[in-house]
Design brief:
The protein is an alpha+beta fold and 487 residues long. Helices cover 38% and strands 18% of the residues. Strands 1, 2, 3, 4, 5, 6, 9, 10, 11 and 12 form a ten-stranded mixed sheet that branches. Strands 7-8 form a two-stranded antiparallel sheet. Helix 9 runs parallel beside helix 10 and helix 15 packs across helix 16.
């Protein structure tokens, strides 16, 4: 659940920067957790003429903690005590297509994961979590942008589609990788007029640069790029027990590719649309709706979870040559049956449902990063700057996750000593998930709305501050096993 008392305040971090001495001290402390020399090795593909790229990067990452929302007002803060250069140097590093931003993000994530395995308590399972989100813009003149459909306001907007992959150990969510996409649309024109496409920002890049390679991803199908992301994470030495996705990513191609990684080390748990795809059960072929209808004929197939107050049907089937387990789930008498799928056929419903609840960590991540860290707010029309600013927001989130983990579980080097406030909870409790899903499903059914409930709930969480209502009603288990009231 969320634990944000003031959406305009970046947790309690601003308190650390009320004086120049304290600001400098906390900059040293924050980056003392990470080895900047090893993290930035091989990242900058150019020689700096003037200020160190590491210094520039350091200042960009710390800007919101200094009270600045952009480079322009960064110079009104104590920032100027550490850097006497001009704004152009900071803008230039954002637009530089030779910087390996993807490698930089992985390096930060790897150090966090390494420290969490060494110093903090173990968890039952680990997860890759994937989802997409809109990065809306006001004009069509950004490089490579198009119109995408906003499921909340039910209209098309100028935006990049941000596809993100993260890692969770059930306690902390860490962003690993991302790509920006556009959508061709029905008319294959990205929702833009010929004049708008002509007026878009354009930039020539050497095909071998990191920026050029990132630019080519913009038109790759998101599902295919997600598979590449998971393989890239594993190549970096990061592996999880499960990949959690929503129904948009569940496909034969996804199962085939993910299950081949490390001899089947990664299983998939995903929502799935009840469409025309066929499953084989007892030598007969059914689509989702047909199979549900068949299973409901025997009332003994319908089980009830008292813990989660819902009904479900579990069935093992064959899908395109893969053994998968289907869970048909009904949250209330008025709600429709939903379909949860996993490639781990030995998994019980309770485990599958509770493991899948970790997927909401990425919804919290999108919301907090947009609200607090300026994700998607960069106004540069240069695609390289969009990649850079998104990466920086992701790194800032890792720093916050480090603070939370250190403060709640163990102190690292005296960082944030004496801090009593908890920052955001990374995962909604299952009771909150059930409540939100039940309410939204009820309204969709009652109003007979033709929309994807999963996507609608995601967008509502992203756009709405639920903290006050949730904190007044719910409590969440603390790390010692007791109950901690979040109000």
């Amino acid at each position: 659940m969320l634990h944000i008392k003031d959406s305009n305040k970046l947790f309690e971090f601003k308190d650390y920067f009320k004086s120049p001495t304290k600001a400098f001290s906390n900059i040293v402390d924050i980056f003392g957790v990470f080895s900047l020399s090893s993290i930035t090795r091989g990242v900058f593909g150019f020689k700096s003429k003037g200020y160190s790229p590491i210094l520039l990067l350091q200042m960009l990452i710390l800007s919101p903690f200094l009270g600045a929302t952009n480079i322009h007002n960064l110079f009104d803060t104590y920032y100027q005590l550490f850097y006497k250069g001009k704004k152009d140097s900071l803008y230039d590093i954002l637009r530089n297509n030779k910087i390996n931003w993807r490698g930089l993000l992985f390096n930060f994530a790897k150090q966090f994961i390494k420290k969490s395995k060494q110093k903090w308590d173990r968890t039952e399972a680990t997860f890759f979590i994937a989802d997409d989100s809109d990065l809306e813009k006001r004009t069509p003149f950004f490089e490579g942008i198009g119109k995408v459909f906003n499921h909340v306001i039910q209209k098309h907007v100028f935006a990049y589609k941000l596809l993100a992959l993260g890692y969770s150990d059930g306690k902390s969510f860490i962003p690993l990788d991302f790509s920006l996409h556009n959508e061709k649309g029905k008319n294959k024109n990205y929702g833009l007029t010929k004049k708008q496409r002509k007026q878009q920002y354009k930039k020539k890049r050497n095909n071998e640069t990191h920026g050029a390679k990132r630019k080519t991803e913009i038109r790759i199908q998101k599902g295919k790029n997600l598979i590449k992301m998971v393989k890239r994470a594993v190549k970096h030495g990061i592996i999880a027990d499960y990949l959690l996705t929503d129904s948009w990513f569940m496909s034969e191609d996804m199962i085939n590719n993910i299950r081949k990684i490390k001899n089947g080390a990664i299983h998939i748990i995903s929502m799935c649309r009840m469409d025309k795809r066929k499953y084989t059960y007892e030598d007969n072929s059914y689509n989702g709706k047909e199979l549900l209808r068949y299973m409901k004929q025997d009332k003994g197939n319908i089980k009830r979870s008292r813990k989660h107050k819902l009904k479900y049907i579990a069935v093992d089937v064959d899908y395109k040559g893969f053994k998968v387990k289907l869970f048909f789930i009904r949250l209330s008498k008025r709600s429709k049956w939903r379909l949860l799928t996993t490639t781990n056929t030995s998994l019980s419903f309770i485990k599958a449902f509770e493991f899948y609840a970790n997927r909401w960590a990425i919804e919290v991540f999108f919301k907090e990063s947009k609200q607090l860290l300026g994700l998607g707010k960069n106004q540069s029309r240069d695609f390289d700057a969009q990649i850079a600013s998104t990466t920086i927001s992701f790194i800032q989130y890792i720093i916050l996750a480090t603070h939370k983990r250190a403060n709640e579980y163990e102190t690292l080097g005296g960082i944030f000593r004496g801090t009593k406030e908890n920052i955001a909870e990374q995962v909604f409790s299952d009771r909150v998930i059930i409540l939100i899903s039940d309410i939204i499903s009820f309204l969709v059914d009652l109003l007979d709305l033709s929309m994807d409930v999963e996507k609608l709930i995601s967008r509502i969480i992203e756009k709405t501050d639920l903290q006050l209502k949730i904190s007044l009603v719910f409590s969440t288990p603390d790390y010692k096993g007791g109950i901690k009231n979040t109000a």
